[in-house]
Amino acid sequence: MKIKQILTVSIIAIFSIVMLSSYISLNSESIIKGYQIGSEVADINLLDVDNKMVSFSDFSDAKGFIVIFTCNTCPYAVASEDRINALDAEFKTKGYPVIAINPNNPDVQPDDTFVLMQQKAKEKEFTFPYLFDESHMVYAQFGAAKTPHVYLLQKEDGKRIVKYIGAIDDNVRKASSVKERFLANAINELLTGKEVSLKETKAIGCSVKV
Amino acid sequence: MLFFLACAEKKVDSNQKEGLNSSDNKIAKTHTSTKIPILSFKELMPLLNKNNDSVYVVNFWATWCKPCIKELPAFEKINAEYKEEKVKVILVSLDFPEQLEKQLIPFVEKRDIMSEVVLLDDADANSWIPKVSEKWSGAIPATVIYSNSERKFYERSFTYEELETELESILK
Predict the structure, then answer these.
(1) 0.90 surpassed by complex ipTM
(2) Number of residue pairs across A and B with CB atoms under 8 Å?
(3) Range of the domain at B62
């Protein structure tokens, strides 16, 4: 009887340690650092504004994805809305659809509720999925720090590989003043079989609110 | 490229201050004026690289950034309480320049912000974010604390105690 108890306690203890250490490694590797250039991206399964769940695997014909972490009210996100629609129009037919994800917690940022996301998508006539990262796991996995924050993915041997991280272009505030379209250039390089020359850029954004 | 320094001056009704209702208090109003310089990054650079016996706490923020607004009192308190110890707070606003008079100046006046406020107007963030710190993703709030011998960068929010701890580590 006693031996059985000791055994049970030991098993629980070992199990806890294993669980705890895997949790810690998840924190230090995936959550804090997030995906880097060359990382393989796990599939997602998030609720879209049309109440359907969306995964990368739903897009069997896509060559890759333009993943944009964005939200309803961050002025930089708002300033980018038309450009995100334009990117989807330009690159969806070429195999790179836009997948927008709102990472914010509406309890912290009340303007970012799912209902307000639906309103935004309707008003701005979003042509792309606008997904709600309700559990805040996806943004953490990516390592997205702010909105807007772009990750360009390319399918390679059935895997989704990160090819570019950063800004849409060199002028987040004013589309008409853009000189360099970082993201579009990267996609065009991939489309012509080249390596992305500028793999990472920085942009000012609103910190993710969770 | 031509860089120029624009100084915007705007008289703001004191009835925007707390405790007074707008339209009804026209008689009670007095005029104050707040100057907030609009700087390109090139013009901001000297503020990030002063070489004297002071310690500078440079905070990147915006009026629409909730965590920034939340931590603002901590920076104000540091600016007030560490004046004698040659600590200077510089609040670098990333508000859009067209919001300067409508948003930023009324905000600064309403809150009686005493720290130096400048507005950074430089759209090509990719070129200047790494010059503030290689570690900066670009999310705000972000803070640089520097002296002539040491420089630290933080992409995070602060309470007063946390900010004081970091400042003390540089003041030693």
Answers:
(1) no
(2) 67
(3) 38-46+53-171
| Residue B172 pLDDT grade (very low, low, confident, very high; cuts 50, 70, 90) | confident
B11 part of a folded domain: no
Compute the nearest-CA separation of B138 from chain A (Å): 4
Mean pLDDT of A122-141: 96
Identify which of B161, B140, B70 has the alpha carbon closest to the alpha carbon of residue B153. B140
A167 touches chain B (CB under 8 A): yes
Across B143-157, average pLDDT: 96
Provide, as residue numbers in chain B, all residues whose Cβ is less than 8 Å from the Cβ of A104: none
Is there a contact between A71 and A102 (Cβ–Cβ < 8 Å)? yes
B148, part of any domain? yes
Whether B130 and chain A come into contact, CB under 8 Å, resolves to: yes
Q: How far apart are CA B118 and CA B57, in angstroms?
A: 13
For the CA atoms of B152, B155, B159, B164, the dihedral, rounded to the nearest 10 degrees, stands at 0
Amino acid at A148: P
Query: A173 CA to chain B: closest CA distance, Å?
Result: 7
Q: Does some domain include residue B147?
A: yes
Predicted local confidence at residue A12, as pLDDT:
55
pLDDT band of residue B20 (cuts 50, 70, 90) is very low
pLDDT tens per residue across span B93-141: 999 999 999 999 999 999 999 999 999 999 889 999 999 999 999 999 9
Set of chain A residues whose Cβ sits within 8 Å of the Cβ of B66 = 108-109, 209
**Residue B145 domain flag:** yes
CB distance A170–B96 less than 8 Å? no
- Residue B108's domain is classified under what CATH number? 3.40.30.10
Q: A147: helix, coil or strand? A: strand
How many domains, chain B? Answer: 1
